[in-house]
Specification:
The protein is built from 3 helices and no strands. It is mainly α. The chain has one domain: Methane Monooxygenase Hydroxylase, Chain G, domain 1 (Up-down Bundle). It is elongated and about 60 Å long.
């Protein structure tokens, strides 16, 4: 346990930020998995919107980097577009 006041505050902040980061990360991971599992094109198109929103939020708050979010969305869109070709 920290002894100094500023170290105690830093620990509180770190715990709070870790919880927020975890929830944001879980949100985009669940959205990506749900989109990838979707069978129909209409369902996939609806789900990709929520995945994009979750990825953008995570990138905006610094949970993941902007290019990481773009890369994940790009790969997801490739899968969705592959459904359209079937």
């Amino acid at each position: 346990m920290p002894n100094k006041q500023n170290a105690k505050k830093a620990l509180r902040q770190a715990v709070k930020r870790a919880a927020l980061n975890k929830s944001r990360k879980d949100a985009y991971k669940k959205a990506i998995k749900a989109t990838a599992k979707s069978q129909t094109l209409d369902e996939a198109k609806k789900m990709v919107v929520s995945a994009q929103k979750a990825l953008d939020k995570a990138a905006k708050h610094g949970t993941i980097k902007k290019n990481t979010a773009a890369r994940k969305l790009s790969r997801l869109m490739k899968k969705v577009n592959a459904l359209a070709k079937k």
